[in-house]
Amino acid sequence: MTDHHRIEGIAAPMALANLDTDQIMPKQFLRGIDKSGLAEGVFHDMRFDAQGTLRDDFVLNRPEYAGARVLVAGPNFGCGSSREHAVWGLQQFGIQAVIAPSFGEIFYSNAMNNRLLLVMLSEDEVAALIADVEPPGRAAVTIDVAAMTVQSATCSARFELAPRHRDMFMKGLDSIGASLAHASRIDAFAEQHWRQYPWLKDVARRTRSRLSA
Residue 108 and residue 117: Cα distance in Å, rounded? Predict the structure, then answer.
């Protein structure tokens, strides 16, 4: 098994329904022009009080969940506005997978295209996982992408992935990497296209040059 086939580590329970992208990544952290520094924004208003002090009672601030790699969450996780920053921030924070009964549709696409694994299980299975990871010392979860299974101390469950997403995770690819895997076919298509329609190539540049003259 490779690192791409398996995610294993501490899982933190966040059994909140409808946890939206503004809670995951508040709007004040969306002003940057790159992906850097987003770990600070993850669940910022839940992790910190108004004075900027860590809240001892928030799950990801508790020592037993330090270094959590998996979140076990409530239904409709990631609903709300579309922001890839929420996905990038979770990854920078160290989260590699989220397990929940359901996800916001846009968040699901953003996450899977960026290799943040989202696992959908039934509400009963998620409840069983949460019961397993809540007691200190029993927080380990293993997600086997090849077998599409989740295993905790007492719970074993199967999940489904679209073949495209499973293939991406198995090969360690995001959506751009998956596209570049077909680079030779893309180049061949482009070459054939320009041979067939040469008058369309660089039409904008040639038009600007003609107008400037």
Answer: 9
User: CA-CA distance, 201 to 12, in Å (whole number)?
Assistant: 53
In a domain, 12, yes or no: yes
Q: Single out the residue of 15, 13, 12 nearest to residue 65, CA to CA.
A: 12
Same domain as 194, residue 130? no
- Return the structure tokens found at 21: 């992208």
CATH code where residue 20 lies = 3.20.19.10
Domain that holds residue 201: 182-213
Residue 1 lies in a domain: no
Q: Are residues 205 and 168 in the same domain?
A: no
106-139 per-residue burial string, b: 16 or more CB within 10 A, e: under 16: bbbbbbbbbbbbbbbbeeebbbbbbbbbbeeeeb
Local confidence pLDDT in tens for the 213 residues of the chain: 446 799 999 999 999 999 999 999 999 998 877 888 899 999 999 999 999 999 999 999 999 999 999 999 999 999 998 889 999 999 999 999 999 999 999 999 999 999 999 999 999 999 999 999 998 778 899 999 999 999 999 999 999 999 999 998 988 877 777 777 777 888 888 888 888 888 888 888 888 888 887
Number of domains in the chain: 2
